From TrEMBL, chain A:
<keyword id="KW-0472">Membrane</keyword>
<keyword id="KW-0812">Transmembrane</keyword>
<protein>
    <submittedName>
        <fullName>Uncharacterized protein</fullName>
    </submittedName>
</protein>
<keyword id="KW-1133">Transmembrane helix</keyword>
<feature type="transmembrane region" description="Helical">
    <location>
        <begin position="61"/>
        <end position="81"/>
    </location>
</feature>
Automatic annotation (TrEMBL), chain B:
<dbReference type="InterPro" id="IPR013325">
    <property type="entry name" value="RNA_pol_sigma_r2"/>
</dbReference>
<comment type="similarity">
    <text>Belongs to the sigma-70 factor family. ECF subfamily.</text>
</comment>
<dbReference type="InterPro" id="IPR036388">
    <property type="entry name" value="WH-like_DNA-bd_sf"/>
</dbReference>
<feature type="domain" description="RNA polymerase sigma factor 70 region 4 type 2">
    <location>
        <begin position="129"/>
        <end position="178"/>
    </location>
</feature>
<dbReference type="GO" id="GO:0003677">
    <property type="term" value="F:DNA binding"/>
</dbReference>
<protein>
    <submittedName>
        <fullName>RNA polymerase sigma-70 factor, ECF subfamily</fullName>
    </submittedName>
</protein>
<dbReference type="GO" id="GO:0016987">
    <property type="term" value="F:sigma factor activity"/>
</dbReference>
<feature type="domain" description="RNA polymerase sigma-70 region 2">
    <location>
        <begin position="28"/>
        <end position="93"/>
    </location>
</feature>
<keyword id="KW-0805">Transcription regulation</keyword>
Length: 227, 195
């Protein structure tokens, strides 16, 4: 493989010092570690590894994949929820991405409608923190077993950021937002809301709400100093 | 924060420890962030590489409970996640190869005639290789570049990409055949003991 390897060497770049920023992203995420254990237990490393294990039925695999795709965009957001603001704000960024900030948990249909006007078909569900959808509501898009496809389209950046260029024709951005009834404060740190998002081609079934007891364990996700 | 990068502690052990002590996972970043950056940067360029290194580790972190600790080396796992992220930018990748292909090769202005000929031949095959990479299907390119870049075995590549070993072999053979064809019968991709 000499010529190809020579070419690869030419095209490679040395890691910059600024890569430390990505380490910071990871360690900040690690600070909210306990909630990840909950999801991670259900996730297959890859279809190949777990498919080889006979005790996993197809149904369990399907559930595992469901969570894998959902958690790709999952994040706990330790921000404050105001009451005097509008319910949400949608902003289109220069790179074509759409930023969604939720201030108050009402009007999911309105969010869907406005996103639709910008060419994004969305299905948004609001739930109280401590609840989640217990059913696999919709089929998965091809190749999304690692959640990487959905992560491209729906990212936990600056609230929720949707990248329409990563949403193909016929795909729906399915987003579930879980809101805390208690507004976090410096005295009572906690999670204001969290969300999970993934792409699907539909149809989307109604959410079968179940208790999410582990949501109680994420109350230490405090904002970083200075925020 | 634990940042034990001692090779005595295997990757799977770091992942296992990170279940109870999540910040331990940063040790994997310290081991492999540079490796992943080089891999992503040669395929997509430096502009996207940094962010995708971060995303690779975030996805890995969120899925660490499901890691099969019988595999001590986490590199195939991380490179597999990175490859899937790269797939989402395949247009950027193809455009990059096309742009590099269009760049005029730097030709030596003086020197022994033999050296000049050698240089021009190398530049010519570089252009042909870039063209071949741009023409490959997504799946074939992923397997070819992952194996060529990392010297993974077929089994490791299969595990990394979540596809059967047989598919890795067939994609690799097809990719090599196509590249060989575009190079006019010269095969720069001879197999060296993989699998």
């Amino acid at each position: 493989m000499d010529e190809l390897k020579t070419l690869i060497k030419e095209l490679e770049h040395e890691p910059p010092h600024s890569l430390a920023r990505q380490r910071l992203r990871l360690t900040q995420e690690a600070a909210a570690g306990p909630r990840d254990r909950r999801w991670g237990r259900l996730l297959p490393f890859s279809g190949q590894t777990r498919l080889g294990r006979p005790f996993l039925s197809g149904r369990r695999l399907a559930v595992g994949a469901a969570v894998a795709a959902a958690v790709a965009a999952g994040v706990a957001v330790p921000s404050l929820v105001g009451t005097a603001k509008p319910a949400y704000a949608l902003t289109k960024n220069q790179d074509g991405s759409i930023n969604l900030k939720v201030y108050d948990f009402r009007d999911p249909e309105q969010v869907e409608e406005e996103l639709g006007e910008w060419g994004v078909e969305a299905d948004i569900t609001y739930l109280p923190l401590g609840k989640r959808c217990g059913n696999v509501r919709a089929p998965f898009v091809k190749g999304d077993d690692a959640g990487a496809v959905s992560y491209q389209a729906i990212r936990p950046q600056n609230g929720i950021t949707i990248y329409p260029r990563h949403i193909k024709q016929g795909q729906i951005a399915m987003i579930e937002v879980m809101e805390s009834s208690v507004t976090p404060s410096a005295a009572r740190p906690g999670v204001a809301w969290q969300f999970m998002g993934r792409l699907t081609t539909g149809p989307i079934q109604p959410c079968e709400v179940v208790a999410d007891r582990s949501a109680d364990h994420i109350g230490d996700a405090t904002p970083p100093p200075g925020s | 924060m634990v940042t034990d990068t001692s090779p005595v502690v295997v990757d799977s052990e770091i992942i296992a420890r990170s279940l109870d002590d999540p910040e331990t996972f940063a040790a994997l970043f310290d081991r492999y962030a540079g490796t992943l950056y080089r891999y992503i940067s040669f395929r997509l360029g430096p502009e996207l590489a940094e962010d995708l290194v971060g995303e690779t580790f975030l996805i890995a972190f969120r899925r660490r409970d499901a890691y099969d600790v019988s595999y001590r080396d986490a590199r195939p796992w991380l490179l597999g996640i990175a490859t899937k992220l790269i797939t989402g930018h395949r247009r950027t990748e193809v455009s990059r190869y096309r742009a590099l292909e269009r760049q005029s090769p730097a030709q030596p202005v003086e020197g022994p005639e033999e050296a000049i000929t050698r240089e021009l031949t190398a530049q010519g095959s570089r252009t042909v290789l870039l063209n071949a990479l741009a023409l490959l299907s997504r799946g074939d390119r992923d397997v070819l570049l992952l194996v060529a870049w990392s010297d993974m075995t077929y089994e490791e590549a299969a595990r990394a990409l979540g596809i059967p070993v047989g598919t890795v072999k067939s994609r690799l053979n097809r990719a090599r055949r196509k590249v060989r064809h575009t190079l006019g019968g010269v095969n720069p991709l001879e197999e060296h003991g993989h699998g």
